[in-house]
Specification:
Blueprint (H helix, E strand, L loop, with lengths): L14 H25 L4 H9 L3 H5 L4 H6 L3 H22 L5 H30 L2 H34 L5 H26 L17 H13 L4 H10 L2 H15 L11 H30 L1 H13 L4 H8 L4 H29 L5 H21 L1 H19 L2 H9 L11
Length: about 425
Amino acid sequence: MKLLKPTARNPWAWIPTLYLAEGAPYVMAMTVSVILYKNLGISNTEIAFYTSWLYLPWVIKPLWSPFIEMFRTKRFWIVAMQLLLGASFACVALTIPAPNFFRYTLAFFWIMAFSSATHDIAADGFYMLGLKEYEQAAFIGVRTIFYRIAMIAAKGILVVLAGNLATSGFSVASAWSVTFFLLAAIMLALCLYHLFVLPYPAADRPVPRDPKRSASSEFLRGFVIFFKRKDIVAVIAFFLLYRFAEAQLVKMVAPFLLDPRTKGGLGLTTAEVGIVYGTVGAIALMLGGLLGGWVISRKGLKFWLWIMVCVMHLPDAVFIYLSRAMPESLWTINAAVAVEQFGYGFGFTAYSLFMIMVCEGEYKTVRYAIATGIMALGMMIPAMSSGWIQEQLGYSGFFLWILVSTIPGFIVAALIKIDPGFGKKE
């Protein structure tokens, strides 16, 4: 007798774990890799340049997002990519102690990044297919919270673990290998869990193709719909430049916290960075995002836009203070990083909601993938040169440059048009 496959399950059974699996690989590739390579003696210029290239899969994911729509189910892609992610974490763990670790680990980070970008496409599409509209609205905060929890676990708990292992007799390389093996085991466990627990929504099937259209024309249709917008220039400028300053800052925060005071850094241990940036900072980021979503639901995105622009960019100045005052108190450092991260979380809500507004309509999954791809490009290009700029200016001069770099964010916010009622609770 053939077993019936459940078309729906309690969303609490799979949404939290799905977004834990979505958040962890991105944070490992974008943030934890920076701390790993800093611990292993790679220069800031090389760290920023090479890890910034890991944004590329998220930049170009719109190129293959139509294939995720057209072939197999999104459930299939989720499980397959989680299996590949677990394997790539294990391969990073195996190659960290190798003589040419930088080359080999970067190769496996690339596999991880491509797998994660594909997983994002499938997971975000599955979220829309697996839930009714009112459930999508009800669980938007839940998915955000668990994505942020993944961030805290990855760049907080796991970094603290690596730091503590390194001070307990393990070599730095061995400490990080153990950490990545643990993450590989967690990801493979999530893969197995989702294989059995994810529902089989009736709508989760390949998008039917118009027989009158070729596969290539169907592939391009989602792109054409997106780029036919009348305000497309302002939209792209906003996606690329709203986070111009943050794209550079994010690559140099961990090196600044880790570098010794003789080099202008704060001289924290790896475990302390896991607490300051990975835990306290990540919690502040999450709280800022939650507050941002709540206030927009009260009065709409248009009302809050300029407040969010200011709250996101102006707190970057705390790093000027840190680089000049060089406080030794962890309380002071935690407070400063928390202020900046809270502001970033609050201000980024405007970016997220604007992206959703732009992507409404036909081929929503493809259009959202295009938008996030442009967003990733806006992070990748500025980040690539951030290490070189920092080494030329020193940390104090670099953070002054970051404050100047916030100006494009204000300019592009003035160019976009927002429906006065968008985001406001009816």
